[in-house]
Amino acid sequence: MKINLEKLQDSAKAFWSDNYNKVFLAILIFAFAVRLFYFFRTLNQPLWWDEADYVAIAKHIAYGVPYTIDSIRFSFYNLIHAGIFRVGLGENFIRFLNVLVSMGSVVLIYFLGKEMFNKRIALIASALMSVFWLEIFSVTRIFMEVPSVFAWLLCIFVLVKYEKTDNGKFLWILSFLLVIAFLVKFSAGILIVSVIIYFLITRGLNVFKNKDFWIAGGIGIFGFGIYFLSLFLYYGTFFEGMFKSLSGQGGIGAPGPDSYLYVIKNNIGFLFSYFPQYFFLFFIFGLMLALFSLFIGYDLIKKNSKIKFICLLMLSFSLIFVYLVYVGSEDNRYLIVVFPILALFFAYGLDFIYRKIKEFISPEKSGKIIGFIFIAGVLIFAGFFQLQEANNLINLKTDTYSETRDSSLWIKENSNPEDIIFNAALPQNVYYSERKTITINDLQNTTEFDEALAKYNPKFVVLTFYELREKSQWQIEYFQKKQEQGVFIPVKVYKRNGQPIIYVFEYNN
């Protein structure tokens, strides 16, 4: 195929003649530089429990390392991680994949903002996404939040493309992507509900007359059918993992009626923490403008694209917030998927102010310059806050659990593959040592501990104060007694700030 150089040159000229494209390219370069900087800075940092859980599952799938996959972690992303390990790329490539996926989110929010509103809103939203402190922090950790944000944005973008083109193939793709988003993180079920409600609001019962909706539904049912069948074959139940996640089990825990007010205040506080003090008002202003547009234009919701898209954003934002309140979320990580929506409403409000500045200040050129300076000033200040927050959090957390990693690596060097280890830091020990591990936190008393020792005959028994639970204080006395009896022989001690934090004992049976 012959390359048309003249056409390429014309396309390049058209691209560079648009100042919005130049600014967007600058945002992408800056976003990549920030992420790459923290990628190298945290390259060898120890894994936390959740991170180690994901990659221990990947090693289990790839190499058969002894580990039980909790149904709440039965995820599509595990297969990607396992494939990465299988071809020999390892943990660092998984971290770099996070960088690329996060860059994908910066790109997607730009094109989403452009399709929904205009290029100026798109640039403001992508600039905010490029420096969002929780996204940058999550990039340095092997969490599902970064791919989850990308999956949400991709689904919403494809939906918008369907609305603007009325091409049924986009609806088919959307159905497939919603299944994938759900299999990345079960909370994407909220997005699926949002999409269904959105189509019922904007199209009414006509959705049932459109063959593309039926095809999309079939694709979704087929995709979920494969997932639920896999779940049944592995666990003997169809819905355990999904119900554990969507009902708030598996680490979050649904609150009682008396604590809902606390959870609401907590999650609102998380939203405020995403912006510098008072800058959250730009989001509130944009949200109020959007609500006003939705209110006065509701009768046009089936015809006006802008009103439709505002409705979609409102639905997604409201439902994920209600869901997190219901399950009692007390971690700002779980609200990360709403930040792109916050950024779009923030940009919506800022764009309104820019247009008013341009309208009231003459000549028009002066209004544009002042409006641009205003937007740039807001974004620079907000960006500085975001980067400072990200830097402080990353620096604070970089070295945490290093003793857990080091002790597990020592165990690997001083044991055989068939040896069994007792350790409360279950996923970290499995990932680093690649040894079958029994968590001692499941043992309720000294009798159960004695029975477990007799049953498994472990090579090493580890006491880690990182994972010591309030109800497990008896373990300290138990370890001391066994040491005095010569049953537990101390072989390694790891300290933090001069204080012992992990003891490794050899079991002398």
Explain the layout of strands and helices.
Layout: H1 5-17, H2 19-41, H3 49-63, H4 76-86, H5 90-116, H6 119-131, H7 133-139, H8 145-165, H9 168-184, H10 189-203, H11 211-235, H12 240-246, H13 260-273, H14 280-296, H15 305-327, H16 339-360, H17 364-397, H18 402-413, E1 420-422, H19 426-433, E2 436-438, H20 446-456, E3 460-464, H21 474-484, E4 488-496, E5 499-507
Parallel strand pairs: 1-2, 1-3
Antiparallel strand pairs: 3-5, 4-5
Helix pairs in contact: 2-5, 2-6, 3-4, 3-19, 4-5, 5-6, 5-7, 5-8, 6-16, 6-17, 7-17, 8-9, 9-11, 10-15, 13-15, 14-15, 14-16, 16-17, 18-19
Walkthrough of the structure:
- By secondary structure, the chain is mainly alpha-helical.
- The protein folds into 2 domains: 19-397, no CATH class; 402-507.
- It has helices spanning 5-17, 19-41, 49-63, 76-86, 90-116, 119-131, 133-139, 145-165, 168-184, 189-203, 211-235, 240-246, 260-273, 280-296, 305-327, 339-360, 364-397, 402-413, 426-433, 446-456, 474-484, and strands at 420-422, 436-438, 460-464, 488-496, 499-507.
- A 5-stranded mixed sheet has the order 2-1-3-5-4, with helices on both faces.
- β4 and β5 form a beta hairpin.
- α9 (168-184) packs parallel to α11 (211-235) and α18 (402-413) crosses α19 (426-433).
- The radius of gyration is 26 Å and the shape is elongated.
